Amino acid sequence: MEEYPAKQAPENLDDPPNSRLFVVTSRAVTEDALRDGFSVFGEVQGVWVVKDKQTKESKGICYVKFAKSSQACLAMEEMHGKVLSEGTKPVKVFIAQSRSSTRHRDVEDEELTRIFVMIPKTFSEEDLKDTFKEYGDIEYCVIIKNKFTGESKGLGYVRYYKPSQAAIAIENCDKTYRAILAEPRTKATAPEDYSGGASRGDYAGGNDAMNQYAAPMADQGNYQAMDYRSGDFTRCLMMSTRAALTQEQIFALFDLIPGMEYCELQRDAYGMSKGHALIRYSNLGSAVYAKEKLNGFEFPPGNRLVVNFVDDGEDRSSPVGRMAMQFVATQMMSSVWNGGPSTSQVMKPPGFSNVSPMSRVQTDVSLPPPKKLAPPDSKTKERLFVVFSPSPLPPDVLEDVFCRYGSLIEVHLVPGRKVGYMKYAEKQCADEAMAALHGRVVNGVKMKVMLADPPREESHKRPRTY
Predict the structure, then answer these.
(1) Which of 7, 67, 100, 169 would disulfide-bridge 135, Cβ 3.0–4.6 Å?
(2) Domain 382-451 has CATH 3.40.50.1980
(3) Class of the 20-95 domain?
(4) Angle between the 284-294 and 247-254 helix axes, to the nearest 10 degrees?
C-alpha cells in the first residue's frame, strides 16, 4: 500500500524484525512532527507518510522505522494514545506487519512478549528467571522437559509483561542463549513433546496460553467422561474450552452455583493450559445443576463450553449408594427442566436460575452502578472506537458496561468486523469510560478503547481493525 523512497529506506525494512511502527494519526501531522515525537525513543531510520495518489494529501497513516526492535516497542508502549501536535487527535501506534507477511491483522502485543532460549540443562526455573529478570518484569518462566524422564531439554520460555522488555532481553542477553521471539504454535508445527528430531524453528512455537481461540480442544487426560442419561451422575465435572480462559474466570463462573469446593485449570508439563478444568462440588445436586446450566454456555461470546461428568473415584456399586444418587439426580433434573417455584434454594441458586445481564459480566475492572441511557435524539458530543479481541461482545453486554459512565446514547457494532462505536452525549463521560475500560477484559474479550475519528470522515474512510 505504501511507497518508500529508495534514498531514505534501509536495505531491509524488516531488519531487525518488529522494528517498524504503523501509526494512525491526524492528516495534519507532518513528517517532521512524527520524527521529533518518536526520535526520543531511539534512532529513527525513516518516516513515511502515506498519501493519496490523486490529491497528494496525507491519509493520516504513517510508518516509522527504528534501528532496534526494543526502540520500536518502547515507542509503541509510550506513544499509543498520546497527542503529537496541539489540536490533533491522539495517535494509535502498533508494530507493523512484515512486508512479506500474508496475515490480515496487525501484530498483537501478546505475540511480542514471549522469548525462546537455549539454556544449560542444569538450569532450574528460578535460575532462568534470575538470568533474565534484569531486562524487565517476568510474568512466568517455563523449562521444556522430557515428558517421560522429567529431565530438562536445555530449552525454555520467558514471558515478559511488555514487548519492549522481551526485545531488550533478545538484544542484550548472552549470545549463547540464542534468544529469539517465540511464535504461537500452529497445528502444523512440532508435536507436544518437542522430541529431539525437530528443528529450532519447531521449538519456537510452543502452545501459547495467551493465544485466545488458537488452542485445539484438549483431550480429557485420564479422566473418564460420563453421560448423565446413563445415570452416571457425580460431583465432579470436566469443563473443556477452545478459548484461553484463566483460572480466575473459570472459578468465578462455576462458583455461581453454591457448593463448589474445588476448581483447577489443567496444565501440561510446560505450565500451559490444556484447555480444560476439573470442578468438584460438595453435593450431587449442585454438580448436576452446574452441568445443565453451563454445558453449551457461551463464555466468552462465540466460545461454547463443554461440561461433562467425570469419575470422582467414589464407590457407587452398593444398591443404597446407587438409589441415593438416582434420587438426588431425579430431583435436580426435574427442578432444572420444570423450574417449579417449590424447588429449594440449593437446587435453584439465587440469581442464577434466571440469569440477569449483570451476572454474565465478568471483568477485571470495578464498574460503577448502571446509569440511564441518554435520549436517542441527543446530540453526539463524543464517540469511542472500540476494538475487540478475539471477538465482539453482544450489544446488551456493551450497553450494560459503557452506560455506567453516564450519557451513553447508543452502541453500534460494525457488521463482520471486530470493532464498534459508543456514542455519548457528554464528552466527559466518554473520556471517563475510555480511561477506565481501555485495555480491560470483559467476558474474556480484551477491549482497546480509543477516541473515534470525526463523523465527517466515516463516509469515505473505513475503520481499520486491529
Answers:
(1) 169
(2) no
(3) alpha beta
(4) 110
pLDDT, tens digit only, all 466 positions of the chain: 444 443 445 567 778 888 999 898 888 888 888 998 999 999 999 999 988 888 888 888 899 999 999 999 999 999 988 888 888 888 888 888 776 655 545 566 667 888 999 999 999 899 999 999 999 999 889 898 887 888 888 899 999 999 999 999 999 999 999 999 887 644 333 333 333 333 333 333 343 333 333 333 334 444 444 443 344 677 888 888 888 788 878 888 888 888 888 788 877 666 667 788 888 888 888 888 888 888 888 888 778 888 988 766 565 555 555 555 555 555 555 544 444 433 333 333 333 333 333 345 778 788 898 899 999 889 999 999 999 887 888 888 899 899 999 999 999 988 878 889 999 999 999 999 999 999 888 877 889 999 987 755 444 444 444 3
pTM of the predicted structure, to 2 decimals = 0.42
Which CATH code of 3.30.160.60, 3.30.70.330, 3.40.50.2300, 3.50.50.60 fits the domain covering 236-313?
A: 3.30.70.330
